[in-house]
Design goal:
By secondary structure, this protein is of the alpha/beta class. The chain has helices spanning about 25-40, 95-100, 115-135, 150-155, 210-215, 225-230, 240-245, 280-295, 320-330, 345-355, 370-375, 395-400, 410-415, 435-450, 455-465, 470-490, 510-515; strands spanning about 10-15, 45-50, 60, 65-70, 75-85, 90-95, 140-145, 170-175, 180-185, 205, 205-210, 220-225, 250-255, 305-310, 335-340, 360-365, 380-385, 405, 430. The chain has 17 helices and 19 strands. Helix 8 (about 280-295) crosses helix 11 (about 370-375). The protein binds adenosine-5'-diphosphate (ADP).
Length: about 525
């Protein structure tokens, strides 16, 4: 008799997931990775807050309430159930209006709500109460970023000697720049005793640091690209936690994010005025003309069009772009930018936009459809990031045949192959120095390539579009990580588990190369 197959059970806790609530890449990951895990046969369930701003009526309201212990007493939360689109992955929404029925997820732009520690204490503690209410005892709980950093800590403390204590925890870092830092005096809000406010757990240079506690308590750690996994162990990228990460360097793995290849598919994308594929690029030309028209720029297929989309923050290097924009606009090229963030940056790009209507257009705001149209209509995509844990836009660009111009950092270094002028090899343009000169020279190189070596642009485009950045392959990396974490926690492997067959079809060379780098050192 064959042993019954044992499914791996995973709870995925996140503060945002597309399409329900999104401020950045974490939402894209949370909306897509669980689906890919589900396709591998993993019983994965998602828990997140119920925010204002989307149609709650589509969700099923579950009977009863969840009792979440808080510092001030017990919060009675509602629970609603939905699915990640195009899947049967359950998403449990914790409903507690006092904390989440607000205009923003974390606070107005550039600011956090003063009670964020309390709000995300509620999410982390509430996620564990959801497990108990559903009688779902996961093998692994996967927490993401500072908002859920308390999950691994609670498993080792308030759940000690209780059934959930058996669950291993994986903590994923999506961005070291946000660590959930607050005043040490607020320790009581976590519901944990003052004794946990010590330099091995929450205390970090005189403040309470949620991420530090997670880095210490989680069974295993991951981040979203192999290069970033190395970078954050250095002072330049570790934002003060590089020492902690070095100590746990053997438990940290970098797994490149995938992209949602259904949502981002130029052949079917409903946001586009015309669809296209590597075999037939005529639709891309139509997208370019439509984008030039939408931007109020001269509609001309011969002028190279550069696209930029992203949060206007120092991370994304927009100050570097600001400092060389005039030089770029002195060439025969057009630039369109969509972003929101720092007020100063918004004002700067908006003012250049009103002055240079001939070559530059900025949209200040968040607009999913426009982001898709820029990815499709532009010829090149600019990402001068100061640091980039993974970055998704460059992968969307590659898939849409829009050649990325990136700084060699984090996931950008792992996904874009630099152009080689002699051979014509490459999928984009890569530069190293974080200076306006380096960025301008690289944009200039792209402009020159466009005018002087159009055959190279065409072949790079085809190569870029053939790359496979789907989650299929990277989900395998997470499965291995979960199984490792389980083994660590329990002291034995998950018995009866049979891994799904490898992702369909042969692994493309670029993916094979990336995967070989995701192994833990
Ligand atoms: P991060 O998470 O650091 O913001 P990523 O590149 O990982 O960066 O993900 C950013 C995601 O947010 C992408 O899907 C991108 O298209 C989207 N995005 C960023 N800014 C905007 C905007 N102003 N309008 C629409 N989408 C945006």
């Amino acid at each position: 008799m064959t042993e019954p197959e044992r499914r791996l059970k995973v709870l995925f806790v996140t503060s945002e997931a597309a399409p329900f609530a999104k401020t950045g890449g974490l939402a894209d990951v949370s909306g897509a990775l669980p689906r890919a895990l589900r396709e591998r046969g993993i019983d994965v369930r998602v828990v997140m807050p119920l925010y204002a701003g989307f149609d709650w009526n589509a969700l099923q309201r579950l009977e009863g309430t969840i009792r979440v212990p808080m510092w001030w007493g017990v919060a009675r939360a509602g629970l609603r159930l939905g699915n990640l689109p195009r899947s049967d992955v359950p998403v449990y929404f914790l409903e507690y209006h006092r904390y989440f029925d607000r205009p923003h997820l974390y606070g107005p732009p550039g600011d956090g709500y003063p009670d964020n520690l309390e709000r995300f204490t509620f999410l982390s503690r509430g996620a564990l109460e959801v497990c108990k209410a559903l009688n779902f005892f996961p093998d692994v709980i996967h927490a993401n970023d500072w908002q859920t950093a308390l999950v691994p800590v609670y498993l080792n403390t308030v759940e000690w000697a209780k059934p959930l204590h058996a669950a291993a925890s994986v903590f994923s870092i999506h961005n070291m720049a946000y660590q959930g830092v607050t005043d040490g005096g607020a320790m009581f809000v976590t519901g944990l005793g003052r004794e946990h406010y010590n330099s091995s757990e929450f205390e970090h240079f005189g403040s309470l640091n949620l991420m530090k506690a997670a880095l210490r308590h989680a069974t295993l750690l991951s981040t979203v690209s192999p290069t970033y996994a190395q970078e954050i162990q250095t002072p330049a990228f570790g934002n003060g936690l590089d020492g902690v990460l070095r100590e746990r360097g053997g438990d940290l793995v970098g797994i490149l994010n995938g992209i949602d290849t259904e949502e981002w598919d130029p052949a079917t994308d409903p946001y586009l005025p015309a669809n296209f594929s590597a075999e037939d690029l005529s639709g891309k030309a139509a997208c370019k003309a439509a984008l030039q028209h939408e931007a109020g720029l001269p509609v001309n297929p011969r002028i190279p069009l550069f696209g930029v989309v992203g949060r206007l923050t120092s991370q994304k290097g927009f100050d570097i772009l600001a400092n060389c924009l005039e030089q770029i606009l002195s060439w025969d090229a057009q630039v369109v930018l969509l972003g929101t963030g720092d007020r100063e940056a918004e004002h700067f790009f908006w003012s250049v936009s009103s002055r240079r209507r001939d070559r530059f257009r900025a949209w200040i705001g968040f607009d999913d459809g426009l982001a898709h149209r820029i990815e499709a209509g532009a010829d090149f995509f600019v990402m001068p990031s100061r640091f980039e844990p993974c970055g998704l836009n460059q992968m969307y660009s590659l898939r849409y045949g829009t050649l990325p111009i990136v700084r060699a950092t984090g996931g950008l270094a792992d996904t874009v192959h630099g152009y080689h002028q002699e051979s014509g090899e490459g999928t984009g343009f890569v530069f190293h120095d974080l200076t306006p000169d380096a960025l301008a020279s690289t944009v200039g190189w792209a402009v020159a390539t466009w005018y002087q070596r159009p055959a190279h642009v065409q072949s790079m485009r085809r190569r870029a579009m053939a790359e496979d950045f789907s989650w299929r392959h990277e989900a395998e990396g997470y499965e291995r990580l979960y199984l490792d974490a389980y083994r660590r926690r329990r002291g034995h492997p998950l018995e009866g588990f049979r891994p799904a067959p490898p992702a369909h079809g042969p692994v493309p060379a670029s993916v094979a190369k990336r995967r070989s780098r995701t192994k833990r050192r």
